[in-house]
Each structure stands twice: as structure tokens, then as C-alpha cells.
Amino acid sequence: MNEETHEPTKQIPAYVKVFGLLLVLAVINVAASYLPLGSGNLGVGLLIAGTQAILALGILMHFFSEKKTVHYLMGLAVVFVAVLLVLFLCCYVDQLNSVK
Fold it and tell me: In this predicted model, what pLDDT tens digit does every residue of 50-77 receive, in sequence order?
């Protein structure tokens, strides 16, 4: 089995850049919450938080350099969560319609 060797000294500059980006995105997220966007604040906040999650998952947790099997399993988990959210929303809408 071919194991990759990781040299932490080569990865430190990437970690520092990601840390800086995460800090900048956190400040932007807080600043965006004060914008008068109405319900659009939620979408902007989720978009920025999603970007932060992709940076943390992909670079800090080495997801971008993993094997394809891990990518497929993560995709399956995302599909499963999406199906559960759709089922939840269908039940919620059905409950709202039965109250009227």
C-alpha cells in the first residue's frame, strides 16, 4: 500500500493563508449581518459560512487530496441530508395545509 509522506513544514504557509482567509470571511460575515438586506442576510451569511466550511474541510482536513472513495461517501452523505430536508419540508407544508 502506497502511503503518502507529509512534511508539515511545507504545509504551514498554506495553513496560514487559510487561517487568514477564514478570519477575513468571519469579519465579512459579521459586517454583512448589519446590511439592510431583509431576509437576504440569511442567504449571504450561509453563502459565506459555506465558503468557510469548504476551506476548512478541503485544505485543513485534507479532503481535496483524499481518494475518490471518500469523495463518493461524502457525496452520498450530502444527498442523504438533502433527501431528509425535502421530507421535512414536505411534512411541514402538509401540516400547514391541514391547519387551514
Answer: 999 988 888 888 777 788 888 888 889 9
